[in-house]
Amino acid sequence: MAAVVACAALTGGLLQAAPVVAAPKPNHGRSHTTPPTPPSRVADPGSKLGKGWNTSADRAVTLAADSDGVHVLVADSAKAYEWRNATVLSEPGMPADSWIGNQCVIDHEHAAVVYAPRTFTNKPDLMQGGAFAAIVNLDSGKVIKLPFTASLAYFDPTCNPDTRTAAFTGYRDMNDPRNTKTRIVSVNTAGKTTFGTVTGGEITSAVPVKDGTIAARGRHLVHINRSGKVKDLATTDSVPFDIRPATHGKIAFVDRSDNTTAHAKLFTGHGRPDAIAAGKLGDLGLHQGAAGQVFLTGHPTGTLHTKGTGVTRINAPSETDISTLGRLAVNPVLTPGVRAGLERIKNSGKGFTKAEPSSQERSAQAPATVTSDTPMTVTSTATTTGEKITQSVQETMNPTGKGIFSPALTAGGSNDKQTQRIRTAAGVSNTPVDTDRWCSVSRNDVNAQALQPTPNQVEWAVDMAVRGKLRASSIRQGGYRSQTGMSTIDPQGLFPLPKLTGGGRIPVNVLLGIMAQESNLWQAESGSIPGQMGSPLAAVDGYYGHKAVEGDPDAFWQINWDKSDCGYGVGQVTDGMRLAGHEKDHETSLSPALQKAVAVDYATNIAASMKILADKWNEVHTDGQKVTVNNDNPAMVENWFTAAWNYNLGFNPPSDASKHDGHWGLGWYNNPANPIYKKSWGHPFMDTSVDPGANHDAAHPQDWPYEEKVMGWAAWSIDTGFSYGTSGRQDWLGESGFSSAGFQPAWWTTPGQRSLVSPPLDTFCNSNNNCNPDTPPDCPNEACYAKYWWNQPNVAWKVNCDTSCGHENIKYQTEIPEPGRGYRLKDGTPVCSGVPDGSHVVASIPKGTETWSDCGQATSSGSFQFTFYPGTEGRYEAKADLHQVGGGYGGHYWYTHTRSPGHLGGPNGYMTINGTWTLGQNLNWARVLVHLPDTGAQTRQATYVVHGSDSSSPRRRVLQRAGGWVPLGVFHFTGTPQVELSNNTADGTADEDIAWGAVAFQPLAAKPKNFVVAMGDSYSSGEGASAAGGTDFFPETDHYDKLNDKLIDKCHRSKLAWSRQAALPGSSKPIGDMADSLDPQMDYHFVACSGARHYDILNHDQMSEGAQVDTGYLDGNTTLVTLSVGGNDARFTDVFMQCVLKAGLDLCQDTSIDNKDPDDGHTLPGNTGPLKDWAPKWLHDQIRPRIAKTLNVIHGKAPNAKIVLMGYPRLLSAGGQCIPGIGTEEAPWLNQVADTLDEEMKGAVSDANQSGAKAVFADPRNEFEGKTVCGDPEDVNGIVKTGLSKADNFGLTEVGMATFHPKIAGARLYTNVLEQTLK
């Protein structure tokens, strides 16, 4: 069983940008200080893995997660445990700061998985039964999503390889004793239900068997048959867990005898279970293996009695994933961002163990700068040898797990007549807001934008608020706060400092710990960087009302506005936040102005949050219903344990006791003794003092109750991913003072006392509530849980709390004005100037809309409108995946994720979003440009459609990573100028962002003289024509991503490419300079790509940029096309490398290479035979006609253009003797092949011209004579191993992509040839 979490703010904030929605990804390049990547296969497997590794059928499966979803990782012993990503699981369009999940292995080919957004751990209903379920084929990556939801408890799901089934458990109303139910469903590898039952009470650790399930109910091991009848099998010392079917019908399990000792036992079918091992609680575990095997892990003490039991002791930690045959123990996997965040806060609680806190040193790579090339690593132990292993993961995922909805999202129907009417009557929607919501402030309302505060601003506001000093005089008035309509915002005038029953005040670290868990300290959605504006943070389940539906337990994911709790902002304030007329029972809506203030202003939100927390404290301090801890001094952190419990779950007051057989108090669900939290027993959350491996707690936050996580954050702080000074200035990685800890944690007098921030198990489970911590609830019926509610006036686990409990640690000791708004952002600063000269700009928001940035009110020369399409339920699901950010040109843009028709996109798809800019005036000739923000835009297939012109090619494809103003081209407008952009892309799997920013229409006095398109392969793109590091490449074409090959772009278009250096006849300025300055006589577009073959130009999607002829820049206006193609089709690199590799063995011209299909590059049977015979025939019969075809296709799209086909130089000068492996006979032959290719290219031009093309051949051989590889000067690179670009070849045996390509001086030689050809 594995439990994982995503790389953003897993349990409340280990990473930046993520309370509710996935943040747009900054366009960072590859870091050259990235540590070496661990091998993907185990090195020296013979010694590290032990005998038989290569013949073993052992398979390891584990999970890792990030904001994209839960990744299912697989490794096989026979392949030296080379890790690969089988698939990634998430729900399309569902806002999530991060994903978490659990898994078990059904058989060698299949795993069962539950997965959900991290925030589900804050919501009891969703934690108990709202997670999604799936079966994953570990070989193919195929995913079967199941039509029901399940819990996130550590035991869910549980598999039985013998029956090849998995059991999923779900709970309903665990805190309502009269309605508590457990649902158990077993499925097979095809996802077909084999067993299902609903029973009263709390059933845990259910595992499927042939005739039903074996499970735990209280201190009993029970069997539930197919009719749902429960039979006690054995009485245990405490609640059984880690229940594992063993051989011959035996059942192994673990229980505990006290708060510190665990026992592994075996039930043989009758009598009392036999003890087979003992150990420390939390350090003894049982894991299911293949073929009835059960593995005992951890550190058992005393004598083992496992012989003949079917239980095998292996040397592995208890909280690891064990491979199917027990040969590998895999540690929880932390994604790079989480690992960096943990590194950042590892010392945040240290040093605060004195009478006074001391300053902290922080050093680690900020998650905000953890680029996607940082490797995901897996650490494990080979159990046969004890070797510790570190490996990287091959990102070869099948995306099907995230491109389709879970059937649970649409399972079940609704009897609501309004819903039925909407299904049949809904048409398209053009507004991004939710007009039918019940919550007061809509998402995506441009007139209700929240400032994303810096961590300093949040901590300052809390520090001021707890002392009643968060007043109008201390905060900046006006600005974005003006949205409320209030002339003055006075946070603690609106929400006065609450009084605590008994006196005292709230410790800052407790309130900050709750906010860390609730929101990661964010007021706006996570796409907004501190300092930017964005939609107010509204939790997905609370805003859309995702709750259990009466009579329809599967229908969690219908929108139920009547169940919306409407939590907003940093404190997720709910009280009074519904629209008037839609209030909850006993609720009064706040005024609209006050509701907006809570939603958009972090300071007001914090003032309101304090009132809620104080109310929770006062509720458990009211006479007749007091529930307190320790000495009840409110100044001490631990004394807020029951108030935090109440904050999350609520309180069952004595006034309702008559409904529950006289019982009242804090509900059972969050009780630390609840067996669903078994994995947390024995160590506090994130406390490495007790557990050196506690950093892995971040991988499974669902294993701790809410209040223990709050205590953990109060003790440790969180990592926000960003660093800001009190002035608001953003610090960048490597600068002095960089620190991204969210706040100063509380301090304790000793580390040991800090480790006791969470209580022993028997603190809230003892005779006072009829609970035995060794035998928690044994509930056969729905009403019994009430007797376990905690309602004692006081309980203490710290006798001298004034010294042993956590002390408040206030950063802002003295009253100061509000810290500055975030500025100097490395990414995300709004662009307020620099519009192309004379342009009419159409913004993404209406004219006059306040952006609340330095850009002021939006200026717009037209309008912008969205189109959303209804789903089968008549709702607009795509709106949930739309986000606004205060960045880009003018201070506002929108973003969502790209989707293909197979991933809910396509025409009229219900996750499809279309946006249209319309200019409010007519034009004649004009250049159209789009502005791309520096975050929230990564797709390379953004296809803009320009309407109202006479162009034969109105669809223009753009790499949104480019950033800034990017031209779509010059158009002759004959109708209303419009530009349309959809998130529907051919490669859209919801992995990349697509943005709608501003569009500029730049009128021109006349049609430009020159319309130039540069196409072709690496010789056209300018591979090699750059300073070291690829600094002369356009960054979007030199983009590296170590985690996902799909996101890499190696097209390597150089600013010094020969098509840009050349000056056209009659012009003194190079084409590139004219293009960059938007010269009215030039329309230039550069689509060449390194490595291109003719089919990449015609019909193949290279580097996710699409085929070059489909980028849209060829039309009837095009006057010149520059092109080089044929070198890669000729397989010249293959031939050249053959000569090097066969050095000293044979003449390379006498050897052969594999056959390839000339139309797609796929390997064909056989080989070429001697290269000296094959090459001329290949070039004439295969390559020449395909080059001619390419020229004809280009001519068909640009019938008025001259096409210049540029040839290739002879690569070797001076006999090529400077290249190892090239002999005196091989160099002349290789140059002869180049000559043959040039002659065939010249022939292809002639062939194409006979069909009407207007092509010429430009021959560079004379210009390069004596200046190629080994020449003097050497203007063509030899073998390159240093100065590599960001996206290059990095293998030890590989050479850089610049190898055998013209240098900058060589590109100038090509420029000379082009200029001579055009004269």
Automatic annotation (TrEMBL):
Q: State where composition is biased (Low complexity).
A: 368-385
Keywords of the record, alphabetical order, are: Signal
Q: Does this UniProt record's set of keywords contain Cell wall biogenesis/degradation?
A: no
The segment annotated Disordered runs over 23-51, 348-387, 1152-1171
**InterPro entries, per the entry:** SEST-like, SGNH_hydro_sf
| PANTHER family reported for this sequence | LIPASE 2, SGNH HYDROLASE-TYPE ESTERASE DOMAIN-CONTAINING PROTEIN
Q: What is this protein called?
A: SGNH hydrolase-type esterase domain-containing protein
Query: Which species does the entry assign this protein to?
Result: Streptomyces demainii
